[in-house]
Design a protein that fits this description.
about 350 residues, alpha+beta
């Protein structure tokens, strides 16, 4: 009997491979280039596993875990010692605080900043004085590495409310959507992503014995965040987002994922989620992003999210954030771009 295709399989465009070879000296290209050939020719689908294997070969041949994309190389072992500094953090917030400071020590040409406001947390990339901002490949690597490590540490897929890149949209836009599980916006002021603030309080769920497998599989577990927890819930969230302003019923979403309703509910339960909980969380995250980042009339946002009664939307938004939509928009316009750095030094 032929094996049934995985309805959640991810296939990437071969042009994503171009990003891996940008800074690779010609003399070091051959082994990885031979691995990449079937995917460039279209004779095999480019999966995250294949992309990770080619990345791993290049990192080994170059003795640089970041493939020459930054001023200083990340010598073999950089990821290991970075992760060892994060695993004993009590929460994701403390781990990310340490992470950004470790990058400050390791690299000269950019800084990672962790900020938070009343509802969201933000990770952004800033060029240092005298240096240019990272190019497309560098921005992708920095944001995906950060998002992937954070997701691995909490054993769940960190949901992104906002994803910004400071370069034009191109042929790889769909790949970024799949690998980040969120729709990116291009030609923005700086690279950054945002996520619900309460995720900073989640405990670190990984332990040192698990690090061996993470490093052996690197970069797969940070490149493609499929950690058991969150995989199906991410796909449910993606289907619901694509259907807005409609909110499809459970049966419709299950059908679009190629699963029975019973299987979908069981897998969501195993991940600690419910279908209704995901719908509520999606509405919350999109509402916060729309109110804070756009000038769209509040009544229109309510309709986009399936609220027939604006008063119901107002009550829900106040419950989510502690503010009315109008007040949150007023304070968000000032707080989000200029939010103070997270002060977690005492906890770390």
């Amino acid at each position: 009997m032929p094996q049934r295709a995985d309805p959640l399989a991810v296939h990437l465009s071969p042009c994503l491979l171009e990003q891996l070879f940008l800074r690779v000296p010609e003399a070091l290209r051959q082994p990885a280039a031979a691995m990449a050939q079937p995917y460039l020719e279209g004779s095999a689908p480019l999966t995250p596993e294949a992309l990770a294997a080619i990345y791993r070969q290049l990192a080994t041949d170059m003795a640089d875990e970041h493939l020459g994309l930054f001023l200083r190389p990340a010598r073999p072992g950089t990821l290991k010692f970075l992760m060892l500094g994060l695993l004993d953090a009590p929460t994701l917030g403390v781990a990310l605080h340490r992470y950004t400071h470790l990058f400050h020590i390791l690299f000269d040409d950019f800084r990672l900043r962790l900020r938070r406001d009343s509802a969201l947390s933000h990770i952004s990339v800033h060029a240092t004085e005298g240096h240019r901002a990272p190019d497309e490949a560098g921005q992708f690597l920095l944001l995906k590495l950060t998002h992937g490590i954070a997701s691995w540490l909490i054993a769940d897929d960190l949901p992104l409310t906002l994803l910004h890149f400071a370069f034009p949209a191109g042929a790889r836009a769909g790949d970024y959507n799949q690998l980040f599980h969120g729709a990116p916006q291009f030609d923005q002021e700086r690279p950054q992503f945002s996520f619900p603030r309460d995720y900073l309080d989640l405990p670190i769920r990984r332990r040192k014995p698990e690090l061996r497998s993470f490093l052996a599989r690197a970069p797969l577990d940070w490149l493609h965040t499929r950690h058991g927890h969150g995989l199906v819930s991410r796909e449910v969230r993606r289907v619901l987002t694509a259907a807005l302003p409609d909110m499809p019923a459970l049966e419709i979403v299950a059908g679009r994922l190629g699963l029975s309703t019973r299987t979908l509910c069981r897998r969501l339960s195993e991940e600690g989620h419910t279908f209704q909980g995901i719908k509520n969380g999606l509405r919350r995250d999109i509402a916060i992003q729309r109110i804070a980042m756009t000038d769209t009339p509040i009544a229109d946002i309510a309709l986009e999210l399936g609220f027939d009664d604006p008063n119901t939307f107002y009550r829900s938004f106040r419950r989510w954030t502690g503010h009315t939509p109008g007040h949150y928009r007023q304070i968000g316009a000032e707080a989000i771009p200029q939010a103070a750095a997270v002060s977690l030094a005492a906890a770390s």
